[in-house]
Amino acid sequence: MPAKKVLVVGATGLVGYATLKHFARDQGCEVVALSRRQPDETFGARWRPLDLVDERACEALASEFKGVTHVVYAALHEQPGLVAGWREEEQIRTNDRMLRNLFGVLEKAASDLRHVALLQGTKAYGVHVRPMLVPARENRSELHEQANFYWNQERYIRERQQGKNWSWSILRPVLIVGDSVGSAMNVIPALGVYAAMMRRAGKTTLDYPGGVGRVAQAVDTDLLARCIAWSGEAATARNEIFNVTNGDVFVWPNVWPAIADALGFAAGAHVPLSLDREIGPREAEWADIRKAHGLRSGSLKDFVGLSFEYADYTMGHGRTEPGPPALVSTIKLLQAGFHDVIDTEAMFVKAFAEMQAKKLLPPR
């Protein structure tokens, strides 16, 4: 009998997929994965299709929740206009409802529940509306000034946990980078497609398409998955909130040479280009590239999702002056006992290599 049963909610997203991979490879775990789309690989986990907006569909899966000890809630609803949607009431209501639809059923069925991991991010610090205080800390008083579904979900979990045997942990990762298909916020397929288009056009150098850089941080999905697993067992993580990063900082133009090399190019000049406007509509060209290389990545819509828009946003397309630094403190996480780190350039190289190996992007 496995020592624990882990429910991964949102198993096709960046965080959910990495967490699914992490736990499913643990012989001491039984893993159930929930998502609307089927993951391209389940790593031995049991996958069940579920749209969390549908309350009755959640109720119908009650039997799957029996014996669940750990929940990783990585599900996310984004509006079609990604960045603009972050301020919309509909996005807040939908994400709030999704968690409630699932958890009301799950908690009744999972009498052995021990831990719930919930994901937030730097929008908790208002990074999308104003300069962040540097470094952003988990207990800063400016929290909750900006409407966000994070607060609805956090209040709900806090209220449900009162007097219960299970605990929760909230993780606030920075820019998340890794292997996933069709995610709303994954720069790897977006940049990989951009590079493939440039190679098709005969380019031998890869120009940097973003804006003037700012100091920022990132986190590798596999590192984040290990942090989520740690939070489910560590006494120091019970009912606590943690920022999570790779452990270093970066500026987009400075890591561009490593990114270009991972994609088989020398780094080119700074040539601003909106990936969302200029690369996103080129489905026919992408179809030719897929055919030429025998790729299994599907259409741009299926493969990249909303990530062209997100790449423009996070790389600062149109920014002509250095942006304010976006840095969080990880002192609390380190003091609690999680010390894993990875060099951010190595993270980018690793992520592109993974997608190339899976024939989702052309070979280097």
Provide a quick synopsis of the model.
With 364 residues, the chain is an alpha/beta fold.
Explain this structure to me?
It is a single chain. This protein is of the alpha/beta class and 364 residues long. It folds into 2 domains: 4-174 and 219-244, Rossmann fold, CATH 3.40.50.720; 177-217 and 249-327 and 342-357, no CATH class. The chain is 38% helix and 15% strand. The protein is built from 14 helices and 11 strands. It has helices at residues 14-24, 55-60, 82-85, 89-109, 149-161, 187-200, 221-231, 252-262, 275-278, 283-293, 300-304, 307-314, 331-336, 344-357; strands spanning 4-9, 29-35, 46-49, 70-73, 115-119, 167-173, 175-177, 205-208, 218-220, 240-244, 266-270. The strands form 3 sheets. Strands 3-2-1-4-5-6-10 form a 7-stranded parallel beta sheet, sandwiched between helices. Helix 4 (89-109) runs parallel beside helix 5, helix 6 crosses helix 12 and helix 8 (252-262) runs parallel beside helix 14 (344-357). The model has no long low-confidence stretch (mean pLDDT 92).
Any descriptors?
364 residues; Rossmann fold; 2 domains; two-stranded parallel ribbon; 11 strands; globular; alpha/beta; 38% helix; 14 helices; seven-stranded parallel β-sheet; single chain
Beta-strand portion reads: 5-15%
Q: What number is the mean pLDDT?
A: 92
Q: Give the end-to-end Cα distance, rounded to a whole number of Å.
A: 43 Å
Helix/strand-derived category reads alpha/beta
Elements, N to C (H/E) = EHEEHEHHEHEEHEEHEHEHHHHHH
Largest sheet: 7 strands, parallel
Number of strands: 11
Low-confidence stretches: none
Sequence of strands across the biggest β-sheet: 3-2-1-4-5-6-10
CATH superfamily label of the largest domain? NAD(P)-binding Rossmann-like Domain
Total of DSSP H or I helical runs spanning 4+ residues: 14
Task: Quickly count the domains.
Answer: 2
Rounded radius of gyration (Å)? 20 Å
**Helix fraction?**
25-40%
Named CATH topology of the largest domain: Rossmann fold
Based on Cα principal axes, name the global outline: globular
> Which CATH architecture of the largest domain would you pick?
3-Layer(aba) Sandwich
